[in-house]
Structure prediction request, 605 residues.
Amino acid sequence: MNIYIFQWISELGGADTRLKDLLKLFGSIKEFKVTCIPNDDFRFLEKQNIDFLLNNNIDFESFKTLPKKLDGIALSFCNFRLFSEKARIDQIKNSGLKFIWSNDMMWHTNEEIDALKNQMIDAYLYTSEFHKERMQNEFTKNTKEFIVPNYFDSNSYSYYQRDTKDIFTIGKHSRPDNLKFSDDFPLFYNNLNLKNPRYRVMGVSDNFKQRFMWYNFDTKWELLKANQEITSNFLNSLDAYVYNSHPIFIENQSRAIVEAALNGLPIIAPNKYNFPNQIIDKQTGFLWDTYEECVNSAQELEDNPSLRKEMGIKAHNFSKDIWCDKDKQLKYWNNIFSSLIS
Amino acid sequence: MKICYWSIAWGKYSHILQSLLKSFKDVGMTEDFHVFSDIPLKFAQNHNLISSIELDRLQFFKFYYLKEISKLDYDVFIFIDADHFFVRKPDISIEQILNGDPWHSFLESPINSYKTQRPDWWGIANKDLANYFKELGINSTEIRNTNGGFWICKKDFANKAFELAFNSHNFLRSKNHIVPEEVSIGYISHLVSKNISNRFAEKYFNYWGSDWTSNFNEIIPQDRSWEWVSYMTLEKFIINPAIVHAMRSKNILMENGKNILTN
Prediction:
C-alpha cells in the first residue's frame, strides 16, 4: 500500500517527532511503501533527515513533481499549510488519495474547517478521548473519526539510571514557544523552595530573556535553546520533570512528558487536561490541584532519592507499555487504512 | 537604585495633586516627582498630558503612561494617585518593599478566606474571581483585593506589566466582567511576587493605608493613629501610616492645593 506523508520530520515539536517515530514503524512494514513530501524543497538539503529516511526505507518526493494521479493514502499531522495554501489540499484530493488528517493541536483553523466542510478530509484523527472531546464538531463528525494515540519508538527512549547527587535538578523541554511558559515561570520553579536546586530548561526562545528580564536568573538556572542538547542527554541531566506552560495553553498529549517518563523521570504536572491519562498520581509522578501540592511534591522528591528512583522506574515501565506498543499502534493504522481502501 | 514618583491629574485632581506634592516636600522626601497634568504644579517635574492617551473611565490610561514614564532614566517608578498625602517621611525603603520583585501593590484583604464578608470585588463573585485568577496562572492559595492608587514598577518590568494588565483585563472581559485597572494591578501583584505576603497591606501599616472609611473626612490627614477597615473582611486595625490614601478628603485637599498654587 502506498502511503504519502505530506509532512517533514524534525527534532522539534510534537507532530514532527511523532512522525519520526511512526516512520520507523511504517518503514519496517514491507507492505507499506512510504513517501514523505515536504512543503518546501529546501528540506531535501537536510542531510541528517534524508539519511534518516533512507535508513528507514522511506522515499521522498517534491510536491511539485508528484504525479497528478496517485493511489493509496495521504497522511499529515498538523501541517496546516496544506489548508492555508489551498492548492496543496486540492492537489491531494484530486490525485485520488484518501486523506487522513491528524490535528494534534487543541484548536481548529478556519481553513481546516473549510476543508472539512468541503469533504476534503476522509478520516479525522484524534490522539485521545480527551482530544476528541475537545475537538469534535459537526464537521469532523461528517468524516470517519479515529483515535490514534501517540507512538514512541522504544529504541529511541531508554531508561537512564541516575546517581544520587547533592544537587536536585528539575527542568523541562519544549519547542521555543511563549505558550510553553507561564508568565510567572521563573517564580513557578523558584517558589518550590527546594533546598539545593538546579533548574535546566531547554526550549527558550530568543525573546525569553526579554520576557523575563524582571527576574534575576542566577547560577542555579541553565537556559538552553531548543535542541541545544540531544533530548536524551538533556533528560539524563534531570532528577525530576516539572511541567509548566502558559495557563491559556491546553496541552493535548504531551510528547515531552512521555519522553521524560520513558527516560525514567518522575513527572510533576497539573491535574488537568490530558495529564491524568499520562501520569499515575503518586506512582509515576504527582498531579497537583493547587500550587501548594506542587511544592510539596517537588520537595518530597528532593528529599527522597529512592522515591524518585521508584517513581522513575514505574514511569518508564508504564509509558513503555502504553506508548511503545508496536503491534497495537499498527492495529490502529491498519484499521484506518482498511476502512478507507476496500 | 534610582527612584521616581509619578502621577497623572487633570481638572480638580491637579489641585489635589498639588497638595500631595507639597506634603511630599514637607516631610523631607527628596526623590524626583514627575507629574502629567493640565496645569504646571509646584515641587514637581511637569509634563503635559499626552493627548494620544485616552483618559478612560476604567483608568487603564495609567498603563499607557507607565510605558511613557518608564523611558526616563530611573530604575523604579512609583505611581501614586493624586489623593494621597504624606504625613511624615516613611522609614522603609522601596528596595525593602520590593524585596527583589519587579512590582508591588498593596494586597489588602482576602476575597477567598473564611473571614471574607463581602460577596464580590468589582462585581465579580469572590469564588469566580479566585477561579479566574487561577485560570490566569495565579498559584497562591489566598487571593486578595488591591488598591490601584499606589503601585511600584521596576523599569525593566514596565512593558510586561502593560501586557499582563491587558491580558488579564481582556480575559475578564471575555467572561463578561468589565472592571477597572485595579483588578489587573492586583493580578500582577499575585503573579510576579516570589512571596505574596511581601505584598500584604498589614506588613506596611506604618507606611501606607487607604482611608476609605472617612477617618479623615474632609480634613487633611495627620500623623496620628486611625482605624483602618480591611475591605473584604471588615476587620478593624489601628494604623498610623506615613502615606495616607486620603480618598475621603478630596475637597479639602483641592482647596489646599489651590492655595499652594496661588501663594
About this structure: The interface with chain A takes residues 100, 102-103, 135-137, 139-141, 154, 156-157, 160, 164, 167, 191-195 of chain B (CB under 8 Å). The domain at 3-262 of chain B is CATH 3.90.550.10 (Spore Coat Polysaccharide Biosynthesis Protein SpsA; Chain A). The first helix of chain B runs from residue 12 to 26.
